[in-house]
Design goal:
Layout: E1 16-20, H1 26-33, H2 37-42, H3 47-58, E2 62-68, E3 76-80, E4 85-90, H4 94-108, H5 126-147, H6 150-159, E5 164-168, H7 173-185, E6 189-192, H8 205-214, E7 217-219, H9 223-233, E8 240-241, H10 257-264, E9 271-276, H11 281-284, H12 286-299, E10 305-310, H13 316-326, E11 331-334, H14 341-350, E12 353-356, H15 366-372, E13 377-380, H16 385-388, E14 397-400, H17 405-416, H18 419-436, H19 439-450
Parallel strand pairs: 1-2, 1-5, 2-4, 5-6, 6-7, 7-8, 9-10, 9-12, 10-11, 12-13, 13-14
Antiparallel strand pairs: 3-4
Pfam families: Glyco_trans_1_4
Protein name: Glycosyltransferase family 4 protein
Length: 475
Amino acid sequence: MNIPSSEPLESHGKPTIALLPYADLIDDFLHSLNISLETFCQEFVGSWMFGYVDALNRVGVRTILFCISAQVEKPCRFIHQPTGTQICVLPPWPIYNVYRRIRLKLLRGYGVQEGETFKNFQDSNSVRKSFVSVLKNLVQSGGSYLSTPLDLLAKELRKENCQAILCQEYEYARFDSSVLLGKWMGLPTYATFQGSDRTKSLIEVPGRYLALHSCAGVIVASQTEAARIRHQYGISASKIARIFNPLNVAAWQRQDQTAARNSLGIPVNAEVVVWHGRIDIQDKGLDILLEAWQQICSDRPDRDLRLLIVGTGTEADVFQERIEGMSLRGIQWLNQFVCDRTVIQRYLSAANIYAFPSRQEGFPVAPIEAMACSLPLVAADASGIADILEGGEDSGGIIVPRGDAAALAIALGRLLDDPAWSRELGDRARRRVERCFSPEVIGKQLREALLPNVVSPPAVPEIKVGQPEQSSLLF
């Protein structure tokens, strides 16, 4: 069991970065995955977050995760077992707990239940629905500023001798607060873009503008997003570092396809498309994937077609109902949170093509994992995809418009109908990942961006993973 401690570990002279994940409370994120804080500390690895930890570790930089949780009453430290990373968990300010109770009562009065996202809230009165949406965003924006206990965070940053603060998302209240804290402490504050591309309400606008102009810099892989913040906030291009999310390329290799299919009960001659990630129907475009699959199967009635889906989430029941209601054939769904990287690789290796229909992303890791396993990518043009497939088909994939099931079906069908071309794109995808997403390359870029005035020490070996890695961009 992971026993909490109040004392920091020795840094052994390494420069240290404080990494603050998104969401008021980490509890909310864990709830969406149906996992506990203990499981997070003992098993969770994948996503951009631990990719950053690995990449920075390889260039001699120590990373500490600072999370906010209502499950603790004082600062506690846990060791992330797979990577050895220290996780410092802080309680929110007491006033935040009061706000949380008031918000819940207020939203319940308008029919929104605890744990329910507004996109699932159904009401025939569109005016009422719009009002509730505005109300929810206003209340949530104000409350988000109360979740980060700046006094406790400052004390723990000093204990850990942190040289910089890195927030997940600049379009979030915690970034505004962290920039203010960084100014007071004399620490540079940065943010990395992972998908949040708009303010929640007008309440945030003044603080966001000041924070983006006062911060030390932002890390944005997507050229579209970089253009947006330059135009919207008028920040200098020199403040924006274009750095991809890293992937441990050496650890992601295609397994033998026949063996993978045998283990999953899939015939060797089947034609297989795969997707993996969090079950979030709207953001992940899973409704589009099902519509496209229906069309693909209708156009090819005599072929053995399989759609593999790996992952779960709070919308799993709704997704299951949708699959059953459409009477789709050939779907094989592993409806669970997968911690073992080899399981993900087995599903990817069993497939011919990777589908990625997301409407909303930052810079997704899941398609890069698939490309590392030599799968051609057919992806909607969500943020980050044009950068991952910067050369289009030369980079190993095909980009289609978001929300267009017909276009997705045509592109997937094109590769299903031309296996030789599909394999060629898969080989190109693997080469693209090797060139552009390795942790050694990304680690150097992150260090130069976050610690420009700190002398680089000798390189260190990759993190030794004590347990199987988890896949996918979940955080």
